[in-house]
């Protein structure tokens, strides 16, 4: 049997009380120690003691990335700073990043979760694991390093290298497993093909895809081009970290670690709960996080809960992760960037707000970029082409620094911006 409050929370009945107790502990800690949560509970007339079943979670207010930015830097911490041993930042909704903290206990829990996800992807102490992630996912690189080392695997830590240097490491160090994004894996595969290098020249056997969903066709292509077996992990920088959901050996779904996170699916237009099987926005509540508890965090990711049990022995909640989103974030090489943050970077670089602009993901020579089109108007017009080029380079550098993703900036006529379907 499964408890299904309006169908949106699927926790095995025998575990329901265990999960409820963890939820109540999180709510009490957040209410006592985080003024933001306390004030919002009080405005809705809710006392944590009134949450007596998992069904009651629907009474609680949502948390969004906007709230995280508004409480920058430490406004959502539930423990004193002296208890924080690590601080992470992620892109926010505008100029302020989101800041999350970890206690020692949080780090230990996260290390165990990442290790479990890696084991489910077939990583063992006999493996050499290479990590290759963009600067926007640097913190994930550290988490994967800790999780793999706790398994006894050898680790080549995440380091920003050119693609040629990454391939040199793959050839000479002979890693058997690689953690990267689907976009970068595709770039590697394309580069090998262009150079006429055969994947059998490497020892790579396992490809762990993170940061963005890869559909079956994309995975088939990567497996054919790189001669690997792929698996997928799901994570959030705000919750905070990678591998809170992962595939088992069947690779038919993602198992959410519901010992530590309570998942829900809501209709993003009505905010009402959706039954298992229906696609909606994934909402997560932390159950064990001490430093940075989040209550009904709207991820923006679209998913659906799968009610049927998996053929494997794992009995965690199962979800299907969908490629579409329900927010204004653009996913570039696994890094989620808010449009408002990109605009803030453009404004900083130009000293003004462009009248017309367009933002979208694009792929050029096998590499995925955030592409920015800015219309040339009177405010930008200059007879000096070099001056315009310098201004666009300033925009590129500023946005890259703010977001941690590669950027291309192009000047376009107004008509091109208007016609851009990505506006």
Q: What brief labels describe this structure?
A:
GMP Synthetase, Chain A, domain 3, Rossmann fold, 3 domains, single chain, 32% helix, alpha/beta, three-stranded mixed β-sheet, eleven-stranded mixed β-sheet, 20 strands, 423 residues, globular, disordered N terminus
Name the CATH superfamily assignment of the largest domain: ANL, N-terminal domain
Question: What's the helical proportion of residues?
Answer: 25-40%
Count up the helices.
Answer: 11
Q: Strands across the major sheet, in which order? A: 6-5-7-8-9-10-11-15-14-13-12
3D shape: globular
CATH architectural name of the largest domain = 3-Layer(aba) Sandwich
Structural class, from helix and strand content?
Answer: alpha/beta
CATH T-level fold name of the largest domain: Rossmann fold
Q: Tell me the name of the CATH class of the largest domain.
A: Alpha Beta
Radius of gyration: 22 Å
Task: Write up this protein.
This protein has 423 residues and is α/β, with parallel strands linked by helices. It folds into three domains: 2-102 and 248-327, ANL, N-terminal domain (Rossmann fold, 3-Layer(aba) Sandwich); 108-233, ANL, N-terminal domain (Rossmann fold), CATH 3.40.50.12780; 331-419, ANL, C-terminal domain (GMP Synthetase, Chain A, domain 3, 2-Layer Sandwich). The chain is built from eleven helices and 20 strands. The protein has helices at residues 16-33, 35-43, 65-70, 104-120, 138-151, 163-173, 182-195, 216-226, 339-350, 385-403, 414-419; strands at 2-3, 11-12, 86-90, 98-102, 128-131, 154-156, 177-180, 206-209, 229-236, 241-246, 254-256, 261-266, 280-286, 297-306, 317-325, 329-332, 335-338, 357-364, 367-375, 407-412. The longest helix has 19 residues, at 385-403. The radius of gyration is 22 Å and the shape is globular. The protein starts with a strand and ends with a helix. The model is unreliable at 1-7 (pLDDT under 50).
